[in-house]
Amino acid sequence: MAINNKKQNKRSNLLVICDFTLVSYITYLMYVMLDNYYFDDSVDTLKVLTTTFLFTFFIVISSLSVGLYESKLRETFRGIIRRIFVSVGIAYFCIEIVSATIGTSLKIHPYFLPASAAVSIITLVVFRYFTTRLGLLGLGKTRTLIIGAGERASIIEKRMRRDVDRIGFDLVGFIPVPGDNREDGIKSEKIVHIRLEQNLRQFIYDNDIEEVVIACDQRRGTLPLEELFECKLRGIEVTELLDFMERETGQIVVNLMYPSWVIYSNGFSTQNYLRDSLDYGINAFLAFIVFLLTWPFMLLTAVCIYLDDGFKTGTSVLYKQERVGLNGKLFRIMKFRSMRPDAEKDGAKWASKDDDRVTRIGHFIRKYRIDELPQLFNVFRGEMAFIGPRPERPEFVEQLVREIPYYNQRHNVKPGLAGWAQLNYPYGASVTDSMEKLKFDLYYVKHQSLLLDLLILIRTTEVVLFGRGR
């Protein structure tokens, strides 16, 4: 597991270094060209270096915020180009703000920043073409062998079909094990037929296998423990399927969990005492900053909702509803009303993607998550955090607890305005969708940290910019 994590981090770090180097070089090159053709007076070298560094720094930070350094970015090449445009645009905007704030000390030439931005976009697009389409910077994918070809192993085939899902490893094949449910098992992946007790060790050495994943349906009496023990001693990773999926997909496969795995894992309760002690202070501070930046939009939204149908119906522009919070405690969440006043005249219903109960204003504010802004007051009251699983209605929680194992574990942390599940599974309107979101929620509960919170907070920018999620 450590090998793959290091390689994924190394690839992301190398992308950052390459982007920083390329943009710095391009920016300085633009200065040299403009200096030869347009500059009458010499420009202070320190000013050039400062502007170059700031512009490059802002591009890298912006690229991070739109997910360009995510190791498993699920996006078309056209989508990557769009993100590059956005990141460079944000950097350009930031440089202009800095220049306006500190005066004209960063102003080199009117053509300098536009030229640098345009050429940087072209350079980054070409560079990303070679890294994404031609598989450069793969840094030697981990050669992985799966022991098992039954129902449990098929989760890899079903959930990790695309190249982007396997960016960190090279799948050599699946070895069938006695007791595997082959009828519901591997359908189209490569099957390796060998005798585990006699040939596994030699096959691993001959094929330079670096990781063995245990994914058989029946373990008792079927695994070659001696061979696996020797592999472990020789530095070959031996990984359980649940740990492999957790690492590669950022989710916990709830339907494959079993008690012993939970017992030997880190559990679903935070051990980060610093984060816990600073929890309310950090969240209240962030809520205050966001409120200062967004109150004009909140006021405008309230006026639009009132003029749209609030004036006629006398219904409040705010929508208050009971939700389940930390440790199952109920609280009333606040949102801008995005549905008709009679939306739940027949009782609680799951929201659907093209819900006809949503108003004209509601479609827009839900797309860009403006309807969530009043939840800042829930953060002030300590009922919610910025980052955490989305709070669900008690009527639905009661049903989900009965039908989905471990569902209650998501209530071990405060619900949040943004979350890991919203970034990775942006829409959910059924029990099945709740199961999928729970896999990401439990991953967050298990791995929660200030660093993960920061990553989610930065990547949520992508949701707002591109109008994705709910």
From TrEMBL:
Subcellular location per the Swiss-Prot or TrEMBL entry: Membrane
Membrane association type: Multi-pass membrane protein
UniProt xrefs under PANTHER family: COLANIC BIOSYNTHESIS UDP-GLUCOSE LIPID CARRIER TRANSFERASE, UNDECAPRENYL-PHOSPHATE N-ACETYLGALACTOSAMINYL 1-PHOSPHATE TRANSFERASE-RELATED
Major subcellular location class: membrane
TM region positions: 12-34, 46-68, 80-102, 108-131, 252-268, 280-307
Protein name: TIGR03013 family PEP-CTERM/XrtA system glycosyltransferase
Keywords assigned by UniProt, alphabetized: Membrane, Transferase, Transmembrane, Transmembrane helix
Keyword Membrane: yes
Family: Belongs to the bacterial sugar transferase family.
GO molecular function: phosphotransferase activity, for other substituted phosphate groups
Chain ranges of the Bacterial sugar transferase domain: 283-465
Domain of life: Bacteria
Pfam families the UniProt entry points to: Bac_transf (PF02397)
InterPro entries xref list: Bact_transf, EPS_sugar_tfrase, Sugar_tfrase_EpsB_2
Gene Ontology CC terms: membrane
NCBIfam families: EPS_sugtrans, EpsB_2
